[in-house]
Amino acid sequence: MKPKNTPGAEDVPNEHRVRLLQAMASVAAAQGLAATSIAAVVAEAGVSKRTFYEHFADKDACFLELYRAASASALRTLRESVQPERPWQDQVEHALGAYLAHLAAGPQLIRMLFVEIHHLGPDGATVRREVMQHLADYMLETINKRDPVLTPTMAMAAVGGIHELVLQAIERGEAAQLELLTPSASAVVRLLAGAPSAPGTKKNGPLERAV
After folding, report:
1. Residue by residue, what is the 3-state secondary structure of 114-143?
2. Cα(70)–Cα(64) distance, rounded to whole angstroms?
């Protein structure tokens, strides 16, 4: 079965490449990346090892492509949730809620992706920074549409803070409840943009409370 949040044909044009990425998502989410073999991935995808190596240099390269594709899918959900007629504070909160709910829809896969990317050395760090930059660019584009209230540095700080909140939730076994982080994630963005906190926002606390 294809895990949620994995790339589909609209994300990657080559059918075999899509099947390999979906297979990597399924096998790695179930077994962890360290225990995942190329043999298991190609068996799940129903293709040969030769086909695998036509698309990816090795297992890590396949995983990094999966990370990019899954992140692009989540970012697309974020962008599609923007409501431009509303104040940026409301837009960001609504979009972050949709983004976190999207991640929560595939808790096994998201847990594996968010944790394993830190174990892939310089290549993993490069791809992670690339994905975080895309998210920071989205924030700048959305928040600064009328007035320049958020700097690139603060946008990246906001993305880093939200990612840490997600990692903490994953470590607590709460990957399926990530949408409950929405008030906290929104408060981080408001604070770094110098905007007032939303009414009722509290400092610190477990997942269901705001920052």
Report:
1. HHHHHHCHHHHHHHHHHHHHHHHHHHHHHH
2. 10
Per-residue model confidence (pLDDT) at position 85:
87
Q: What is the pLDDT of residues 28-52, one digit of tens each?
A: 999 999 999 999 999 999 999 999 9
Contact 10, 68 (CB under 8 A): no
Q: Which amino acid is at 58?
A: D
Q: Which two tokens stand for residue 163?
A: 């990612």
pTM exceeds 0.85, yes or no: no
Quick check: 79 and 29 in contact, CB under 8 A? no
Q: Give 138-148 pLDDT, tens digit per residue.
A: 999 989 988 89
Produce one character per residue of 168-191: b if its CB has 16 or more CB atoms within 10 Å, e if not.
Answer: ebbeeebbbbbbbbbbbbbbbbbb
Structure tokens at 128: 């992670």
Helix then strand then coil, in percent of the chain rounded to 5, is 70, 0, 30
